[in-house]
Amino acid sequence: MQMISPVEFFRSLPPKKCTECGENIVEQAESYLMECDRCLSKRDE
Ligand SMILES: [Zn+2]
Prior knowledge:
Elements lengths: L5 H7 L24 H8 L1
Zinc ion binds next to helix 2.
Organism: Peribacillus cavernae
Pfam families: YhfH
Protein name: YhfH family protein
């Protein structure tokens, strides 16, 4: 039996993409965000 460590699990995930423009999202502390900084700032207007 092989155990996959949480680190390996997250590494195998594809990079997150913005749901608005499809741009890759750089992982940040606020990883619940599904949109890139650009689209998020557009939303605030
Ligand atoms: Zn975006």
